[in-house]
Amino acid sequence: MNVHDTHGASISPQANPPQYRATAGLPMVTLTNQTSTAPIDFVITRVDRRGRLADRSYLVFLGWRPGESIEIIVRRSRALNIHRGGPNALTSQGHLRLPAAVRALLRLSPGDKVLVGAKPHQDTLIILTMPMLHHMLATCGVTEIGPDDA
Q: Which of 127, 122, 119, 24 is nearest to 75 (CA)?
């Protein structure tokens, strides 16, 4: 197994890792599973002609307020990550508005649907377009869903 450091260099594990023995009285480190089981609230909503997302329930779920400053980050995968603080803001009516440049990059048109995931443990939103979601499902081998899958 190879591990990569933050600069992308490959690090190979040692063939004979050092041996450690527990000494009475020293604290023990407990390893936990890195798979997050924290809740993520998902909603599918439409984008209007001004880039506003119709549903606001995910903002209520996170406790975000109208006019709050946010940062919109476009990932290489073209997924969006949005968190508090930054040069953008929620509208005064409490809507999330995607700027025109972001909509153009994601090829979003008025009426298109997006999947919004609210992650309260990270105070973050994730937004995926429907083509991205279809691609992810196809990559996982999900090509069709029938009555036996319900």
A: 127
Classify residue 76: in a domain, yes or no. Answer: yes
Q: How many other β-carbons are positioned within 10 Å of the β-carbon of residue 119?
A: 19
The SS3 of residue 128 is: strand
What is the mean pLDDT for each group of 10 consecutive residues in the chain (150 residues)?
Answer: 39 43 51 62 95 94 95 88 94 96 94 95 94 86 64
Q: Residue 79: give the domain boundaries.
A: 41-139
pLDDT score, position 138: 84
Q: Would residue 127 count as lying in a domain? A: yes
Whether 102 maps to a domain, the answer reads yes
Q: What is the CATH number of the domain that holds 47?
A: 3.40.1550.20
